[in-house]
Structures are given as C-alpha cells and as structure tokens.
Design goal:
With 294 residues, the protein is α/β, with parallel strands linked by helices. Helices cover 27% and strands 22% of the residues. It contains eight helices and eleven strands. The longest helix is centred in the last third of the chain and has 25 residues.
Length: 294
C-alpha cells in the first residue's frame, strides 16, 4: 500500500476510459492493483501533474466494456485507497433535468438521490457493521476547487446540483424524467452511486464534476435521448475535463489541510471488537485499517 505524507495531495480520478491518455501525466505508470472485493474495472495509471500526484481509474474499463450495473464500485474505491489516494474526483456524463443546464455545461454536484437497486453499496455487513453519515455526501472543498478549475478551463459551470442515480443501462422514460424533476433533481446519471457511499466509508473526500451531454426525456417537444448524441458531446466535454484537471493541479494549495471526512469512521463502527468477523476485518485493511487496528 502506498502511503502519502499527511499534508500531500494525491487525487484519485475516476472517469472515462479515454481520459487518462489526454491528461498526459508525468512519469505515468500503469499498475495492476488487486482488491479483496473482486476485480476492479482495470489497472490504475499513476503519475504527477504540476507536481501533484494523480491516480486515474477508468470506471467502465478499457474500451468501455462494463455497463454501469457491472462496475465493481467496491473494488474500485478499495484499489484507490490502497494506492494512497487522499481525495477522489469523479468525472461523469449526465443528462440534464433543467433547461438552464445545457449540453456541454459542467455541474459540481453537491447531493444525490439513489434509485439504484442491485448494487453492493457498502464495504461493511454481517459481522462488522458501520453507519457513516451521508447528510453532506460531497466534499465541499474539493468540489469548489473542481468547479473553479473547470471555469478556468473555459467551461460553463454550475456550482451545485442534485444528481439522481438510476440503475440503467436504459435511459429513463418521460414519466420518470418528469418525476425526478418534481423531486428536485437537476441531473441524471448511472454511476455516482454507490461510488460516493463507498468513498465516504473509505474516508476519502469525494467530489463529482458532471458533464451534461443531453437533455433527459422530460422535454415533450424533443426526441428521446439517443446514445450517439451522448457520445458525441462526451468527446467534446472530455477535452475540457482534461484541461480542468490540469487547472486543478495548479489550484490546489501546496499543503493539504485535514478534512473531517478523513475520519468519517471514527464513531461509525457498531459491532463490538470481540464480535467482529475476522475475515471481513482483514478484507477492510485498506478501507478501515485506521479504526480497526489492522
């Protein structure tokens, strides 16, 4: 396991499979990292950018081979933790549920609604129970830096937004899209959850820079969402995303001050030490070793 100095930034980036090459990390190395939670989406690419350490992981695997529901989110977050990542920035394509959030815009998401149904959403379970707070699921500090960086890259950025996560892989119906608008959701996607839950359990501050690719199906006068349309806008947005990451490296303070999220598990464990499942505790050596004494 790679361990950073406490005051050094190490940004884990989870994004599209084509993003790593465009970032052009210095001293880049592709590394296979194993996880007790199964196979991650693929190898990680580690390197530096503007003096800041970055580790990149393609969420859907090389060539976009994994559908949203097939992504092993637990293994992905576990692997980033093992690499010594201090903070996680996710970059994801989304549909817009608001007229003012236009295709090509970026949204610094600050909260979520979960409509996923079939995903492993926790590292903990029978034999080792933990309850982390998700009242504020995004790290405001990292989200602020990400939004400022995207603006510096000449993107049109919305500083907040509610993301509704659906199971997919199909896009939503018009009725569902209208319902999500009534709930107060601003953008819609398929990958932010349980990613954000798991990052919090791993004591990793998490932020999501969402790239709007389309208007979802709520606009009655418009045609429904088509994948080809989404992919075309994604390609253009990826260029801005790379520029935003380069700007982020320049924006980060030289020293990383501690975040309360660094200690999210401090009072979260519910299972008495003598009752804990030793096998699960061993699997959690990276995620929860700090509080388990692993």
């Amino acid at each position: 396991m790679h361990t950073e100095k406490p005051d050094q930034w190490h940004i884990g980036v989870i994004g599209g499979s084509g993003l790593a090459d465009g970032i052009d990390l210095e001293d880049a190395q592709e590394i296979e990292v194993s996880s007790p939670f199964g196979e991650p989406s693929g190898p990680v690419t580690v390197g530096t950018l503007g003096g800041v350490r970055f580790t990149f992981l393609a969420r859907h695997g090389r060539g976009h081979r994994l559908s949203p529901g097939a992504v092993n989110f637990r293994a992905n977050i576990d692997v980033l933790k093992r690499c010594g990542v201090t903070d996680v920035l996710a970059i994801s394509a989304v549909g817009s549920l608001r007229e003012e959030m236009k295709p090509g815009d970026f949204v610094a998401v600050d909260t979520f609604i979960d409509r996923t149904t079939r995903r492993e959403r926790s590292f903990f379970g029978p034999g080792l129970v933990a309850h982390v707070s998700m009242a504020d699921p995004v790290c405001g500090r990292l989200a602020g830096y990400a939004a400022t960086a995207a603006t510096a890259a000449a993107a049109r950025v919305h500083d907040s937004g509610c993301y509704v996560a659906i199971e997919g892989p199909q896009f939503s119906t018009r009725a569902e899209s209208r319902l999500y608008r009534q709930w107060g959701a601003d953008v819609i996607g398929m990958t932010a959850l349980p990613e954000a839950y798991l990052a919090r359990e791993a004591e990793l501050p998490y932020a999501l820079l969402a790239m709007v690719t389309d208007y979802d199906a709520w606009r009655e006068e418009a045609a429904g969402v088509e994948a080809a349309e989404v992919f075309a806008v994604m390609k253009a947005n990826a260029v801005l995303a790379v520029q935003a990451l380069r700007a982020l490296a320049q924006l980060l303070p030289e020293k990383r001050e501690p975040s309360p999220i660094d200690r999210a598990l401090e009072f979260a464990l519910a299972t008495a030490p003598e009752a804990r499942d030793k096998r699960l505790a061993a699997m959690l050596d990276a995620v929860a070793g700090r509080v388990l004494g692993n």
